[in-house]
Design goal:
It comes from Amycolatopsis silviterrae. The chain contains twelve helices and ten strands. The chain is of the alpha/beta class. The chain has an eight-stranded parallel beta sheet with strand order 3-10-9-8-7-6-5-4. Strands 1-2 form a two-stranded antiparallel sheet. The structure holds flavin mononucleotide and the ligand CCCCCCC(=O)C(=O)O.
Amino acid sequence: MRTIAELEAIARERLDPAHYDYYAGGAGEEATLRANEREFHDRVLVPRVLRAVGKHELAVEIAGSPLSMPILVCPTAFHRLAHPDGELATARATAEAGTVFVCSMASTTAVEDVAKVADVLWFQLYFQSDRKFTEAVLNRAENAGARALVVTVDSAVRGRREREYRNAFHDLPPGLAAENMRDETGRVRDIEMPADLTWEDLDWLREVTNMPMFLKGVVHPEDARRAVAAGIDGIFVSNHGGRQLDGEISSLAALPEIASIVDGRVPLILDGGVRSGADVVKALALGADAVGVGRPVLWGLAAAGQEGVAEVLERLREETDTALALCGARNPGELTADLVR
Ligand SMILES: Cc1cc2nc3c(=O)[nH]c(=O)nc-3n(C[C@H](O)[C@H](O)[C@H](O)COP(=O)(O)O)c2cc1C
Ligand SMILES: CCCCCCC(=O)C(=O)O
């Protein structure tokens, strides 16, 4: 099985350089992008021994969705830039792995088609000021079988991504479109970043959908407190993979305080910089219930389609299984903060 770094190298060779940069890049000088991974390297595990871990397991349940391991696939846009099978390949591999695929609002395959091959499907939303359109997209996702809604809240405006400016990457190639943005006439609308989104709009969202609702992109503990008070069903502790605000705290550094404030009342998903099973174990020990992966999945997809995504997810599963047992835990719930320094 190839490493994620090896798959990234193959992906880089295969991809149009502007598309590689779109996937790999972050905002500004990419300090936050780098910090996400560095924070994992800077923390070390201090394992416990003699704990009879012969029978250990990785499965978790998050907001009613079963995950065979505490790892899910984050929403990322435009999979058909990486491979002709796009989101279908990713969703199939994720279903095989028995975990959650979060379909991006900006997917290049319609959510209805993704749902046909996905197992546990969640849907990510960029709230659009045209509420009728927003409601229609949510209905599409829910009717297709999405089991949770992930509202991205870290993107009031689009981050300043220097690589995209340099490459003048503004449009998808002919034949590709953000298929969930088609309106009833078949026209594909531009995706609007939700600059005026407020907590009150979340109340409206709760009225128009029955899906459990996650907020994605929370790093401030007070926002986490408010989310719990507002009845939100779960939180992605995330800085959007360092693609929005450069200079922002890394996701892992933000996690412990949020975990302490939330105190188990809603599930926490950490994403940003997770590249190995040891990373997964560190995040779980510091309070996450599961982690999300973004770029590694895109590298697998670009390198080898469905098989490449399967390779990434299987590698992460095996590494997590090993790291969990070597830390003296029998399940993710037994990982505690004292295991990380
Ligand atoms: C190419 C790319 C596209 C993304 N598209 C979306 C998106 O459509 N919606 C969203 O909420 N987050 C999006 N994200 C952010 C991811 O969901 C996730 O937060 C991030 O990739 C996690 O960091 P990692 O790539 O280091 O694993 C995107 C990230 C990348 C790299
Ligand atoms: C205007 C297109 C919006 C797609 C946003 C995808 C995304 O979140 C990213 O980080 O890129």
